[in-house]
Specification:
The protein is α/β, with parallel strands linked by helices. The chain folds into 3 domains: 88 residues, NAD(P)-binding Rossmann-like Domain (Rossmann fold, 3-Layer(aba) Sandwich); 205 residues, Mur-like, catalytic domain (UDP-N-acetylmuramoyl-L-alanine:D-glutamate ligase); 138 residues, Mur ligase, C-terminal domain (Protein-Tyrosine Phosphatase, Chain A), CATH 3.90.190.20. Helix content is 32%, strand content 25%. It is built from 15 helices and 21 strands. The strands form 4 sheets. A 7-stranded mixed sheet has the order 8-7-9-6-10-11-12, with helices on both faces. It is globular.
């Protein structure tokens, strides 16, 4: 593996530099005095920002873009037949995947906090970030969404503390070097890569093995996960648990919600009351995300007072139960939920939010996920008063398995829910304007471009 040393800046070229994660990593290297170049298929705000900071950006990908960098970094979307990838191989230039580069970055910090799990990563990473900012810890942060308190998805700090999401897809997080690892949950997902849930659990166990296997390494584990001992057996790192049981190191009691579904609760530490926590984001699922954040803050020796202030002032990240506005008297919220467990969490939060009826515009994300979890999607979505289905967002896939949103629509209706399907965003917008009434709550939901419907409804 290529060793990246902040004390020895080099020239790094990024193939696909315009992606949210790649651009963030490029920005970190620029701040450390590295020479950065990169290519992408189109210009964007992210590439313009990098240019302003001194990167050389090339639009279009061709072999001659690989002049003489010391290192080439590529995303998982780049294929071996990409002309820049081929040129780098032919010239014998060292190469790293995006995940490998992120792992190498971590080695330059004495404390690396990694937040993993099937869902909740971005929110929990953001909660931890907010606590660290409240405590003036000046961290460097890489988060999977846009966080207002850091002005985007990356923050360059001057301390020895690095905080990052750790995604299991394609085993990316096995390239990382955490000193503190959080596991929020382990569910069936990304079944285009993993064989089954056992394969996924095995991957998370290997991730735990990336920690220092002594008291320097800390695993913060959800004690509600099936057979949590599987992830800790034979490991030498320290372990703390959080969850719904008072037997966990961190748990909650007396949970109440305000009129906007934001929770407050009594924190229990080793079963004893340890203060009252008030959250600035809605939903019971965020109670458990906040318990994980508190455990990390305790390890980093942040006072409970500053921790609670950081949690209270955290009001969310874009596309996580994000209030978009009102149209014709109904409220529009946008949410990134694209897995059945996430949908259940979002609709549970919606049930606590002021509304007459809940309408969900759901855009399934990838054919493999839709096919593998079709019954679970149907069960989760039927909690809404009405589901309006858009076409499946293909992302990296082609529909070779014969699945469609109409299949999900039929199953929801067979199971006692109420669903309709429309093939275009414009038809969905027309239907919404004709049927959704004042006082209703409309949620645009999914990891694709379904948020465009919310934005169009508000602009129209």
């Amino acid at each position: 593996m290529y060793q990246l040393d902040f004390q020895k800046p080099i020239h790094v070229h990024f193939i696909g530099i315009g992606g949210i994660s790649m651009s963030g990593l490029a920005e970190i290297l620029l701040s450390e005095g590295f020479t950065v170049s990169g290519s992408d298929m189109k210009a964007s705000e992210l590439t313009e920002n990098l240019e302003q900071k001194g990167a050389k950006i090339i639009i279009g990908q061709k072999a001659e873009n690989i002049e003489s960098p010391d290192l080439v970094v590529y995303t998982a979307a780049i294929r071996p037949d990409n002309p820049e990838f081929q040129a780098a191989v032919e010239k014998g230039i060292p190469m790293l995947s995006r995940a490998d580069l992120l792992g190498e970055l971590m080695n330059n910090y004495s404390e690396a906090v990694n937040i993993a799990g099937t869902h909740g990563k971005t929110t929990t990473t953001s909660m931890i970030t907010n606590i660290l900012l409240e405590a003036s810890k000046d961290p460097t942060v890489s988060v999977g969404g846009s966080l207002d308190s850091i002005g985007g998805n990356v923050r360059i700090g001057s301390s020895d503390l690095f905080v990052a999401e750790a995604c299991e897809y394609t085993n990316s997080f096995l390239s990382f070097h955490p000193t503190i690892a959080v596991i929020l949950n382990v569910e069936a997902d990304h079944l285009d890569f993993f064989k089954d849930i056992d394969d996924i659990r095995q991957s998370f166990r290997r991730f735990v093995g990336k920690l220092p296997q002594d008291e320097r390494g800390l695993l913060v584990l959800n004690g509600d996960i099936k057979d949590p001992g599987y992830f800790t057996e034979g490991m030498g790192c320290s372990v703390v648990t959080f969850g719904s049981s008072a037997g966990c190191d961190y748990s909650a009691k007396d949970i109440v919600f305000d009129e906007l579904a934001r929770a407050s609760y009594t924190l229990l530490y080793h079963g004893k009351e340890a203060g009252r926590v008030t959250l600035g984001v809605p939903g019971e699922h965020n109670v458990y995300n906040s318990l994980a954040a508190i455990a990390v803050a305790d390890r980093l020796k942040i006072s409970r007072e500053l921790t609670l202030q950081g949690l209270k002032s955290y009001t969310g990240v874009r596309r996580r139960f994000e209030y978009k506005g009102k149209v014709n008297g109904f409220t529009i919220v946008d949410d990134y939920a694209h897995h059945p467990q996430e949908i259940t969490a979002t609709l549970s939060a919606a049930a606590l939010y002021p509304h007459r009826k809940v309408h969900v515009i759901f855009q399934p994300h990838t054919y493999t996920r839709t096919k593998a979890l079709l019954p679970e999607f149907s069960e989760a979505l039927k909690a809404a008063d009405e589901v309006i289905l858009a076409d499946i967002y293909a992302a990296r896939e082609k529909n070779t398995i014969g699945i469609s949103s109409e299949d999900l629509c039929d199953l929801i209706n067979q199971n006692g829910g109420h669903a309709v399907y429309y093939p275009t965003f414009q038809k969905i917008i027309q239907y919404v304007l004709e049927t959704v009434e004042p006082g209703d709550l409309l949620i645009t939901m999914g990891a694709g471009n379904v948020v465009d419907i919310a934005d169009q409804l508000i602009s129209e």
